[in-house]
Amino acid sequence: MSEAVMSDTVQRQALAEELDSFNCRVAQPTDGPLFTRDPQSAMKAAHWKASDLERLLTKIGAKLKLEAGGQRRTLRLANRGLPFGTTPTIWASIQYILPGEIATAHRHTASALRFIMKGRGADTIVDGERYEMNEGDLVLTPAWTWHDHEHKGDEPMIWLDVLDISLVRSMHATFFEGSDVPRQAVSDIPDRSYRHYGSGLMRPLNDTSRPALNPLLVYSAERAQEALRLAAALPPDPFDDTALEYLNPLTGDSALPTIGTALQSLRPGMHTKAHRHTGSVVYYVMRGQGATIVDGTTFEWGAGDFMSIPPWAVHEHVNRSYDTPAMLFQVNDFPALKKLGLYREEAA
Ligand code: GTQ
Ligand code: FE2
User: Fold this and answer.
1) Ligand 1 centre and the CA of 161: distance in Å?
2) What is the strand order of the sheet 345-347 is part of?
3) Which one in 114, 293, 327, 343 has a CA-CA gap of 20 to 30 Å to 151?
4) Count of Cβ atoms closer than 10 Å to residue 153 Cβ
5) pTM score, two decimals?
6) Is the Cβ–Cβ distance between 138 and 114 less than 8 Å?
7) Where is the Cupin type-2 domain (predicted)?
8) d(CA 147, ligand 2 centre) in Å
């Protein structure tokens, strides 16, 4: 058969095979476009109701045992549009720990945080510092820090875990190490970071910390909520009302380099303006009653609910109460996007 009568398909196939043998290719008609005009996220907006989560947590508490090797008992907040993760970058899970249990020591390159939802009497050790975990506290386990948790109280305890696992995975930078001992040794000064940096106002003179690593590991509910209360008396931001970000007190950057954390309050009767931005958000409703409208879908929420907002989805928030503020904790991936020059936002 001469070249001239070869079908286009056969020629194309032959070319593809030749290129492939050199680890090269040209665009094929079956390929999707290289670029889209704006982000086309496969992630779907989602809503988890407190009553469902409570029932499911009790169920996994009865059915799943904690074992050595660094396993945790968690309910992962999944997304129907994604093969993995709560958002394209973040895994959020609810950890359920029973009195007397130990979640044994390990470390990983994924950055992590805990936000305490319910209960008291558990503590966590992070690189030798020990912190009691109480409702509303934010505790960090920056990348590659050792951490373990023990529950010494007498009621089940639950907290939100957030890790940038999807981001770290996409960069093929996953490392994990389990410890030989269930719990780490605690250093002579078990709360050094809080004593030095916890005010958020001062730092040690002649500080020798490496500023890229946040030296502060715990943000108490009391101090964070007092800051929010003060800021909530100011005029509202049109899109977020009052939202304060937890920060690294040495650099003024976000508390973790990739994951953003914020406490938000919506004043009574507030209905924010709609906007959209790159980056994904997971919300936990601490108190109040309201609604979030995401790309035309309305999620009616109450205390204990979770919601997730996909990248570039138009969203607005409503406080349904005319006398009580609503308070929400959010995690997002804005710090990662900003560092890469990918953060954008616009009013709807
Ligand atoms: O508590 O260390 O939900 O390593 C997922 C991975 C919790 C933890 C999670 C973890 C942890
Ligand atoms: Fe962990």
Assistant:
1) 6
2) 297-302, 289-294, 315-319, 275-277, 345-347
3) 327
4) 18
5) 0.93
6) yes
7) 95-162, 263-329
8) 6
